[in-house]
Specification:
With 158 residues, the chain is an alpha+beta fold. It is built from three helices and twelve strands; from the N terminus they run E-E-E-E-E-E-E-E-E-E-E-E-H-H-H.
Length: 158
């Protein structure tokens, strides 16, 4: 399945392929391999071919990526994009990225990322509020240790 990340002008800014692991009425989970060069990020290194288990929702203002190391399958953490609800069809998933992100380390520590980028988008108040509401919902899910569609690794490391 093709994943299309878009900007507010509905232009594709990144695309890649993934394999569907599961579908629900308003969500799809797929597996994709990280397709960029190795790069330090927070307290980890994202490596080319790290395994990402990604859940996209057509009724939520975010998506969640579980990240596993390419070498030993060690769980690294969750990267969550605040976005408009995904458009999911039989061959693709597309979402409009709203810049704001949440990183949740394997030990549960949360870091809000790119708030300044959200402000630079000059969103109308309603759209900006939906972005912040999506962030709040995500933070609450991780605070209760009951995030949606996550693997057993969450419970093993906490």
């Amino acid at each position: 399945m093709k994943v299309l990340k878009k900007n507010l002008a509905d232009e594709v800014t990144w695309q890649y392929e993934g394999v569907v692991l599961g579908r629900e009425e308003n969500a799809v989970t797929l597996e994709a391999l990280f397709n960029r060069d190795d790069m330090p990020f927070m307290d980890i290194v994202l490596k080319r071919n790290d395994r990402f288990v990604e859940t996209f929702y057509s009724d939520r203002w975010y998506n969640i990526f579980e990240i596993y190391d390419r070498d030993d399958n060690r769980f690294k953490g969750w990267y969550c994009n605040i976005s408009k609800p995904a458009i999911i069809d039989d061959v693709s998933i597309s979402y409009v990225d709203l810049a704001l992100d949440l990183w949740v380390a394997a030990d549960g520590r949360q870091t809000v990322l790119d708030e300044y980028e959200l402000e630079e988008l000059n969103l109308d108040e309603e759209l900006k509020q939906k972005a912040y509401d999506g962030m709040k919902e995500l933070q609450e899910l991780f605070n209760t240790k009951n995030p949606p569609s996550l693997s057993e690794d969450f419970y093993r490391v906490n």
